[in-house]
Amino acid sequence: MTGPRPRLALTSGEPAGIGPDLCILLSQHLAGNDLGCEITCIADQALLESRAAQIGCPLSLGPHFQIEHLPLAAPCEAGLLDARNASYVIAMLGRAADGCLSGEFAGIVTAPVQKSVINDAGIPFTGHTEFFAERCGGMTPVMLLAAERLKVALATTHLPVSAVSGALTAEVLDHVLRVIDADFKRLWRLPRPRIAVCGLNPHAGEGGHLGREEIDVIGPAIARARAAGIEATGPWPADTIFVPRQLEHHDVVLAMFHDQGLPTLKYAGFGSAVNVTLGLPILRTSVDHGTALDLAGTGQVDPGSLEAALRLAARIATGRVTA
Predict the structure, then answer these.
(1) Apex 138 CA angle, 132 and 144, nearest 5
(2) Has this prediction a pTM greater than 0.85?
(3) Are 33 and 133 in contact (CB under 8 A)?
(4) Same domain assignment for residues 154 and 135
(5) pLDDT at 1
(6) How many structural domains comprise the chain?
(7) Which of 84-93, 122-131, 152-161, 257-266 reaches the highest mean pLDDT?
(8) Angle 19-29/304-317 helices, nearest 10 degrees?
(9) φ/ψ of residue 57, rounded to 5
(10) pLDDT at 179 over 80
(11) Does pLDDT of 135 surpass 60?
């Protein structure tokens, strides 16, 4: 006998944004297309039904795609933010996280939220990643963006460029490399993940002539990782590691800062790239774009990234993922 099918929580995101639209379109795309998982979309059901009518796309519910109703705090109009619904968004994320921690859900797939309106409501909120990390007990997560043939992890995330060098400490790099190694073994089932580590400076510092971070911090972190059995190489110049003949020898690239790695990733897979949060005891994938308030309710949105996030989560949850 086979066991119960894994269940994934799909959070519908900022109600005034394109999250509800994406969930509606996704319900159509998945009709009759079995991912091997059950999908629970956490949302206000009346909101989804009214948005479905607005965009002329019926909500398709079936045995593998269901809605868990969570009522809005205030009426919602597509494209118009309302801080009163910030508590609704937080409750949605909390419900999904708690369901994962209890074992009810095998993972979370998140549509985009609007951080500014949550903060406008007086709720401190940095982002999905930080919220789930705190909910899981104060973990220190690592951001990974995954396209079909390229995966890029980040040593630092949303920092000014001027703050990156100071943030690249031995402790940070040691932690990030351990997390990448452990989660590529756990999620992608790679026995020995191959991690290409970028330098920070042009030409990876040019032997110290263009900066010493590679010599003083990054290189030693790679050496410690290798001594611990982690297959890390580098520091690589960021302008040469993202070429096919280098990438074919690595499973993931570790970039030192946000705009060092993500422009290449998004060029390679925009609209189908997936944000994966590493270093948590739960599985979480997400879209690689924002709320697009101007497109909400227009019917002109592409569910490709959310569908890719859901498909990747389903493959991981059912043990069918490949690197």
Answers:
(1) 50
(2) yes
(3) no
(4) no
(5) 37
(6) 2
(7) 84-93
(8) 60
(9) -135, 110
(10) yes
(11) yes
